[in-house]
Description:
Elements: E1 8-11, H1 17-28, E2 32-37, H2 41-51, E3 57-60, H3 66-80, E4 85-88, H4 103-134, E5 138-143, H5 147-150, H6 156-176, E6 181-188, H7 194-201, H8 205-209, H9 220-231, E7 242-245
The protein binds NADP nicotinamide-adenine-dinucleotide phosphate.
Amino acid sequence: MRQFQDKKVLVTGGSRGIGKSIARAFADQGARVAINYRSNAAAAADCLRELGGKGNIALQADIADPAQAAMLVEDAISGLGGLDIVVNNAGIYLWHPIATADFSDWIAAWRQTIDTNLLAAASICYCAAQHMMRHGGGRIVNVSSRGAFRGEPDGPAYGASKAGLNALSQSLAIALAPHNIFVGVVAPGFVETDMAAEWLEGERGDAIRAQSPLGRVARPEEVAHAVLFLASPGAEFTTGTIIDVNGASYLRS
Ligand code: NAP
C-alpha cells in the first residue's frame, strides 16, 4: 500500500519547479492530484502527462484573486471527489530594491507579492479548511522560504510575504488542530527551478552554491520530500513546525 493511496491533493503552482516535484511525489505514492497553474497551460499539460495514472487534473486559476482561489478549491473538490491535503506552493519573487525602485513600482511589487504569496494561501486555507472541518480533517503544507529569516534585500516584499506565511501557518496550526487539521511549513533556500535560474546561471551562481557546505543548492525533489513528510500519517504532532531545506546555508534555532 502506497503512503498516500487515494488521497486527494491540491498543489498550487503544481505545473513547474518545486510544485511539479511535489505533485509527482504524491502521485507516485498513490494520490490523485490537482495541479494548479496561472497561465502556462503547456507546462501544466506536460506535467499532467508526466504524472501518468488516472484521476489527476490541471486547474487554471490566478490565485492572487481571492474569487479565483475560492473557485479553485471548489473545482479541486469536485474534480477529485474530495480534498485531504493542500499544498500552498505557488509564489513569485519580484525585484524591487529600495535604493532604485520608484515609489509606484515599489507599491506595485508589494501588492502583487503579498496577493500571490500570502493572501492566496490565506484564501485557499480558508476554503479548504471549511471542507476539511466538515469531512473529519486534513493536512495543509505551505511552502515558505529561507528569505523569511535571512532577509531579502532586493525583494523585501518577498521576505515579508514568507514571514507572513509562516505566521499564518502557525496561527492556523493552533486554530485547526481541534478539527483534526494539521499545518506545516517547508522553508527552502535556493532551489534549482526557473525562479532561481537567473541567479544560479549568473555571476553570483558560484557564491550562492557556496552558501551551503554541500556546495550546491537544493533539488526540487528534496523540497518535495519534506512536504510529503509533513503530510504523512504519523506527522500530526509536528503541526506548526517549519522545516528548513537549505543545506545548512542559514541556521536558526
Ligand atoms: P517557479 O518555478 O517560478 O514556478 C511557479 C509556479 O507557481 C508555476 O506553476 C506558476 O504557474 C505558479 N504561479 C505563480 N503565480 C501564480 C498565481 N498567481 N496563481 C496560480 N499559480 C501561480 O517557482 P518555484 O521555484 O518552483 O517556487 C515554488 C515555491 O517555492 C514558491 O512559493 C517560492 O517562493 C518557493 N521558494 C523557491 C525557491 C527557489 O529558489 N526556487 C526558494 C525558496 C522558496 P505558471 O507557470 O502558469 O505561471
